[in-house]
Amino acid sequence: MSFCKFSTEYYAKSYTVIDNLFFTRYLPSTAPKHASIYLYGLFICSQNDNLDVQRFAENMGYSIEEIIESFEYWEEQGIVRIVNSEPFQVQYLPIRNIGSSNRKYDKDKYFHFNIEVQKILSDRMITPNELEEYYTLMEGYSLPDGRKISPEALLMIIRFCAQNKGTNVNYRYIITVARDWASAGFITPEQVEKRLETYSTAGIAVANILKALGSTKKTSLDEHQFYLKWTEMGFNDDCLIYIAKSLKKSGRANFEKLDKKVVKYFELHLLSQKEIDDYESNLDKIYSLAREINKTLGLYYEDVSNQIDTYITPWLNMGYESEILLQIAQECYLRGKRTLSALNDTINDLYAQGIVSKNAYSQYNLSQQDVKENFGKILKKLGLERNVTSFDMDYWRRWTTVWAFNEELINYATELAEARGANISYINSILADWYTQKIFTLEQAKLASENYRVAKAKTSSTTKINSRKYTKEDNENIYNKFDELEI
């Protein structure tokens, strides 16, 4: 909050400035509701009040939908801009700037286009601002290869939107659909025609999905868009109908809720009816497993739904059984890796090594025991009386797997560290140097060690300093010089 602000009394006696062009250009032809909403919004701007659309609607006595509809009207007139739909936010624009677009377009070039658009959207007058938006889409938006949507293709999309939404369809909706189609590569009349054929073919499937949801309404463009997205994900009609029927059982269902369900299954890699059915039927077991894993790690979540979607289900999809997951979780807990993220890293690492089945994990554990024994010998040589830690295991994995050193080289590096009275980090530095120098045999390592010893001996040898011996007479001369100094 600002340290200084206007008082309530100041606001009560202050003024809201309204451009006279609003009265001459817009008020005569504007519905009273739209005018009052615009003016109240202007007042809110002048007060710098942190008001959301719900309170705005309550203060005006209108519904939120009516407020949004009114600002959409003013956006078409070009004197406000809707900058965000959720949460709803509006930006007021200077009225004097109307018609002064930053980018000029050749109106003659789009003469035929303008006539056709007005014919298609016959229930309302097309504003210059709306036409500018269409021009901007055709000239300002292009695919990576430079191609742009043609006027003929855009007219086909506008006609399609009008057929599905009515001839009073909002131009922002048209722009959104056209941009989506253009980004998907539908920019010529031939390409748009193929897209329209797909919509026509999909009509029966969309109607069947609506029926499965318990709806008898006519199919819409938005529902066709959803359907095409789902099929592109890899879902077939039978699976989508199955999901729709199961959603209907849970209560009120619609395409938006169905979309959330389908996207969730897609993210979980469940693309068939059987996979989805197995997942849903085992959901109680999955919830129980999630709580057991959290308990093993020393964690607690009241709601484990997010953990199931993020971690548990992907692990199960990898092929891990509940028993193995709990064993891995227990091992992570003992190694100090006590978060789901750390457990996930461990499981991904095991999966990359092909360690998934119970037998493979048992063999892995045996090999890990061998690693502990080998590293225990290193600790003993260095005089370190402690247990092998997870950090030690990481060292060994780096030395043997990442750097590909054999035990013979590791033992030689240990001998060098032992002679110096050093620790594990010194062994790591030796092996890192050898890895950089591409030294992978014992002979090469011994030669490198001898060369290092000789070079160090040369640099550490001291140079004798020539000293001068002074006689008694020299010392006396030095002191006599002080008498000759002028102070």
Description of the molecule:
The chain has 487 residues and is an all-alpha fold. The protein folds into 5 domains: 90 residues, Winged helix-like DNA-binding domain superfamily/Winged helix DNA-binding domain (Arc Repressor Mutant, subunit A); 81 residues; 87 residues; 75 residues, no CATH class; 94 residues, no CATH class. 67% of the residues lie in helices and 2% in strands. The protein contains 24 helices and 2 strands. Strands 1-2 form a two-stranded antiparallel sheet. Strand 1 and strand 2 form a beta hairpin. Helix 4 crosses helix 5, helix 11 packs parallel to helix 13 and helix 12 packs across helix 13. The relative contact order is 0.03.
Strand content: under 5%
User: Which H/E pattern describes the elements?
Assistant: HHHHHEEHHHHHHHHHHHHHHHHHHH
Number of strands: 2
Question: Which structural class fits the helix and strand makeup?
Answer: mainly alpha
Query: Unreliable runs, pLDDT <50, ≥5 residues?
Result: 97-102
Note the main sheet: 2 strands, antiparallel
Question: How far is it from the N-terminal to the C-terminal residue, by CA?
Answer: 72 Å
Gross morphology is: elongated
Residue share in helix: 55-70%
**Overall mean confidence score, pLDDT:** 84
